[in-house]
Structures are given as structure tokens and as C-alpha cells.
Design brief:
426 residues, binds nicotinamide-adenine-dinucleotide, six-stranded parallel β-sheet, Rossmann fold, single chain, 17 helices, globular, 2 domains, alpha/beta, 42% helix
């Protein structure tokens, strides 16, 4: 098999489209299937339905190698390695909802020529159960994805490692998947399927733990007079700890960490093991999202009738993904406290719709700020730091109160300009 073998991608979301773009960039023909007509139509017109830096350009320059379809039947004759990139959202129980993955397994059917390459994040044991159901009629490789939205294309092309989990009996599919990544010059970790599945969940749970840990240090620092930014810098220089994911803030959100941490906790619980540490990580994160409310109340008293501007809706900058975003929790809490909420995000406000309750979606940051009693910085978009805080912003605010939920703004400048500034652990 040559190293430019055609591949199939099932699910044209963040992971699927980045996978398709990057493999086409590496010279492969890629057959992309989604079930949403409007998605396939817009991709076929050259329009990319999500915002991800560099993605649209990469899909555009490789358009001759990319084929979009609604039909699984268009993939099967053209590609043997089928990358499953469908969503695995949380169910009410906290377990991962595998209905979309199961549907893909049914649709692919039994063919010893094909292998399902699982990029979706799935519970440990999923591969084993799919193999058992298919009774060896289809190959199975676990190939979890570690990209981060906002830098997904770069992460895919320059991974810290590629994990490929397969069983000895898999007819060489695992090696074929590993070979696709050889041009990337990254360490390739070969494991069994269950271990590959666990590497993904454990990695996300560990990163979430780092975030909840530094948030607790921040909360204690506020009481004891330490500055968490300095603390994190001093800790992060220790090579055993490392600087990443040590930024205090309003907690983690997004489409992965909350659901994956919860899925691992449930998975452990299903085996009879109570994962105490993850229970606390989740609880700390939930409480952290609400701490901004207490800071507003400290200065404004009751929030009934108060006008509060939220800057940022996306769960982090450089994406328009709002799944499990802190902004949604804050908007809901503020409105139930009786406040009037206005929100602004450079690209993501349009996606939020009814999830923001009755919050007003503003045209610009200044429009959101106009007449507000306080500003809460929720997402660290660079343009929010560039606002004219000493001039325009100050004039438009009814009272100069800023809750900087990401320790992102220039505290000294704001304090000098007469603002009441509340950061996190500063
Ligand atoms: N987004 C991330 O940052 C990220 C990173 C690593 C791993 N993951 C994991 O990757 C998976 C996909 O995540 P995402 O963010 O790309 O999801 P997404 O919701 O953006 O995309 C999923 C796509 O799959 C499509 N789909 C559903 N059922 C289908 C079917 N039967 N056939 C074809 N298409 C189908 C949906 O219409 C949708 O377009 C999840 O398991 C997620 O946990 C996501």
C-alpha cells in the first residue's frame, strides 16, 4: 500500500474537517461524509461552516483532492481506512452518548477490506465492544485526536505524539494508519486499543485537573495576598510541572474537557470505583464559573436591574465554538439574579441564540459596554485588550467596574485610570 492511500472521513466537524484538510495537504485523496445536507452543500461550494484559523485556506488549496458527500456508499468503494470523527456528546447520566458512533458502525457494515479508525473520543472498552459486535468483519484502530480548537491545523500537523491503538489480529490496518503520520515526524505511540482510548481520556482529565488546581490556588491567594500569576510563573518553570494549563480564570469549558472528565468519572463509577479526584475537579470548575457573580455583588450589591456587559461568548479565543462556554453559565446566572445582560463576541455571538436567554447580542464591544454597570471579561480575545479603556470605555460605562475573568487586561492601566478591577487570584 503506498503512503498516499485515499482515506474516508466520517463527520465534518472540527476534528473531521481538520483531519480531511491535513491529510489532503499531505497528498491523500479524502472522501468526507456528513449527514447534514447544508454542511455538505456549503463545503462543496468552498464555504467552511466553522471558524478555525488556516482551515479554510488549506481546504481551498487542496480542493481537487477533497470529495464531499452525504452517502456512505460514496466512501466505501474509494477508501479502506475510514476515520470516524462524529460527535460523542455527554448524555444525562454523564456517560458519553455513543449513538452516532453506533450508527456509523451499522452504516459501514461488515467488510474485511475496511477499518474504522476511531478519532472520536470514546469510553475505554468501545473498541472492544465494536469489534465484538462486528465479529471480526471489519478492522478497528483507535487513533484519538489531541488537537485544540483555535490552533487545530497547526496541532494536527505538528503533534506532540500520535497514538495508534490496535490488536495484533487487525490485518495490518494499525500499521497503515501509523504510516499516514510518518511525514509529520512525531513520536508514534503504538498501544492496544483500550490503552489508546484511556490515553485520550486521561490526558484531558489531567489537563482539567491542572486548571482546577491553579484555580483553587488563585482563590486561596486572593485571601492570603499572593498573586496567582506570579505563583504560576514560579511553579511552571519547574520542568516537572510545566507552564501550560496553569492560568487561573473562570474554569474550563468547551466541547471536550467537561464531557471527557465527566465520562472518565462515570466510566470509573461503572466499574465500582469512585474517582474522588475527578469529582473535585468538576466541582471546583462549576463553582469557579460562578465566582464572577460574587465579585459583581461585592461592589454592586443586588444585581436586580443592573446592566452587565459580558465580553466574549466563545469558550476560548480563536474559535466560534460555544459548547459548554462559561459565558452561557454566567448569562444564565446573572439573569436569574435579575440583571440585564448584553454580550459581545467577535465571531461567536451568532451561534449562541436562545442559549443566552434574554441577553442582548451587541454589535460591538463598545455597544455592549454602553451604559453598563460593570464589564466581565469572559473570553480573552486580543481585541478586548486593545479597547480604549482610559477613554471610550470609561466614558460609556455607568460605573467603572471590571471583573477580569481571565487575568487578561492591564490591571495597572485600569487601576490608574480609576477602575475598580477584580481579577482572579491577583
Ligand atoms: N473539537 C475538539 O477540539 C476535539 C478535539 C479532540 C477530540 N474531539 C472529539 O472528536 C469528536 C468530534 O468532535 P467535533 O468537535 O469535531 O464534533 P462536531 O460536532 O463539530 O462534528 C461532528 C460531525 O459529525 C456529523 N455526524 C454525526 N453523525 C454522523 C454520521 N452517522 N455520519 C456522518 N457524519 C455524522 C455531525 O453532523 C457533525 O458535523 C468528539 O468525540 C470529540 O470529543 C474533539
Amino acid at each position: 500500500m503506498n503512503d498516499r492511500e485515499p482515506i474516508g472521513v466520517i463527520g465534518a466537524g472540527w476534528v473531521g474537517l481538520v483531519t480531511a484538510a491535513c491529510f489532503s495537504e499531505l497528498g491523500h485523496d479524502v472522501y468526507v461524509r456528513d449527514i447534514l445536507q447544508e454542511k455538505i452543500d456549503s463545503l462543496s461550494r468552498g464555504e467552511v461552516p466553522i471558524y478555525e484559523p488556516g482551515l479554510s485556506e488549506m481546504l481551498g488549496r487542496n480542493s481537487e483532492r477533497l470529495h464531499y458527500t452525504l452517502e456512505m456508499a460514496d466512501l466505501l468503494p474509494n477508501a479502506e481506512l475510514l476515520f470516524c470523527c462524529v460527535d460523542t456528546p455527554p448524555s444525562y447520566s454523564g456517560d458519553a452518548d455513543l449513538s452516532r458512533v453506533n450508527r456509523v458502525v451499522e452504516e459501514v457494515g461488515g467488510s474485511t477490506d475496511h477499518a474504522l479508525v476511531m478519532k472520536s473520543t470514546v469510553p475505554v472498552g468501545t473498541g472492544r465492544s465494536i469489534r465484538r459486535t462486528a465479529n471480526g468483519a471489519i478492522g478497528y484502530v483507535s487513533n484519538p485526536e489531541f488537537l485544540k480548537e483555535g490552533s487545530a491545523v497547526n496541532d494536527f500537523m505538528n503533534p506532540d505524539r500520535v497514538v495508534v491503538g490496535f490488536e495484533d489480529s487487525d490485518d495490518g490496518f494499525g500499521e497503515r494508519v501509523a504510516a499516514l503520520y510518518e511525514p509529520l515526524d512525531a513520536p508514534i505511540v503504538h498501544t492496544d486499543v483500550a490503552s489508546a482510548e484511556m490515553i485520550k481520556l486521561a490526558s484531558n482529565a489531567f489537563l482539567a485537573t491542572k486548571i482546577s488546581f491553579i484555580n483553587e490556588i488563585a482563590n486561596v491567594s486572593e485571601e492570603l495576598g499572593a498573586n496567582v500569576d506570579e505563583v504560576a510563573r514560579g511553579m511552571g518553570l519547574d520542568a516537572r510541572i510545566g507552564p501550560q494549563f496553569l492560568r487561573a480564570g473562570l474554569g474550563y469549558g468547551g466541547s471536550c474537557f467537561p464531557k471527557d472528565v465527566s465520562a472518565l468519572k462515570q466510566l470509573a463509577g461503572n466499574t465500582g470505583y469512585h474517582f474522588q479526584l475527578l469529582t473535585s475537579v468538576i466541582e471546583v470548575n462549576e463553582l469557579q464559573k460562578r465566582r464572577a457573580i460574587g465579585k459583581l455583588q461585592k461592589h454592586l450589591g443586588s444585581l436586580v436591574g443592573k446592566e452587565i456587559a459580558l465580553l466574549g461568548v466563545a469558550f476560548k479565543p480563536n474559535t466560534d465554538d460555544i459548547r459548554e462556554a462559561t459565558s452561557l453559565v454566567l448569562a444564565g446566572r446573572l439573569q436569574s439574579e435579575g440583571a440585564h445582560v448584553r454580550v459581545y463576541d467577535p465571531i461567536a455571538s451568532g451561534r449562541a441564540g436562545s442559549l443566552l436567554g434574554g441577553a442582548r447580542v451587541a454589535e460591538s464591544a463598545l455597544d455592549a459596554i454602553d451604559g453598563a454597570d460593570a464589564v466581565v471579561l469572559v473570553t480573552e480575545w486580543p481585541e478586548f485588550r486593545e479597547l480604549d479603556w482610559e477613554g471610550d470605555v470609561k466614558q460609556k460605562l455607568r460605573s467603572p467596574l471590571v471583573v477580569d475573568g481571565r487575568n487578561f487586561l492591564d490591571r495597572e492601566l485600569l487601576t490608574r485610570a480609576g477602575y475598580t478591577y477584580e481579577g482572579v487570584g491577583r
